[in-house]
Amino acid sequence: MIExxxxxxxxxxxxILLTAAGAKLSRVLRTGSLSAGLGPTELFPVRLRQPAAxxxxxVEVGLGVALIATAGGHSSLVRSAAxxxxxxxxxxxxxxxxALVEVRDRRPDVGCGCFGTLSTRPxxxxxxxxxxxxxxxxxxxxxxxxxxxxxxxxxxxADLGLLVxxxxxxxxxxxxxxxxxxxLGYTEPCELRRIPAERALASxxxxxxxxxxxxxxxxxxxxxxxRELCWWYVVFPGSPAGAESDIVFAVQVKKHRPGVQSAxxxxxxxxxxxxxxxxxxxxxxxxxxxxxxxxxxxxxQI
Length: 302
What we know:
Helix content: 40-55%
Number of strands: 7
Radius of gyration: 29 Å
Structural class: alpha+beta
Number of domains: 2
């Protein structure tokens, strides 16, 4: 049983390291800054924070892969590499624990940054204890025999139960779990969503409303386009039924399968017989959100 518990630390450590690196890199994709959200980097001078953050991510990915890659080797070279990677992992978590203690003392307002944006709460004892436990878990794997998958049996189910129990224990002492649950239950208001105009146009051109009026639109480029709360409004010149008109589309601000509405606005005639641009709601004054707001569009419904 003790041998099984020691072996189970390898997938747990690898999962923790790779998840932590992935969470940090996801922050990079959103903010463009590798040092953002990494608490211990605040202890370095500004010019060294970016290299330090990059080094942390690189070490986490390297150790996560090495712990699994060397877990089942039998040759002396692989066994030596396994021992080395486990020693480095233990040292990494030990240094992390000491760094978190220092962050708590010198910058109590900064999160640990262990899992990117999920680790924004001020560094507490739970994060420090977790790093110490992971350092101990890495130490107990040194000298353990090659890991192999057990055949289907009641013993394999018991091993799986031990693995799940350890992961639940780590989740219980991790402050990031609460933040993750909050985010899973949070829906961003549509007024705050960032959907670029190019994406709204792409969604419009895939819609049935666009296909309905595509043959009557006289320009590939919209005459006007603006956003009002939860909708993008797009105006194209056209001539449905032979009359000069503006074809107005409303595209919902939504990442997947946005709603699309359309309306035809006839142009008014001015002295001289030239058609005047139609007064589309929202060009001169704030348009009402669609649907639900009042609209002065005389033809169709947005």
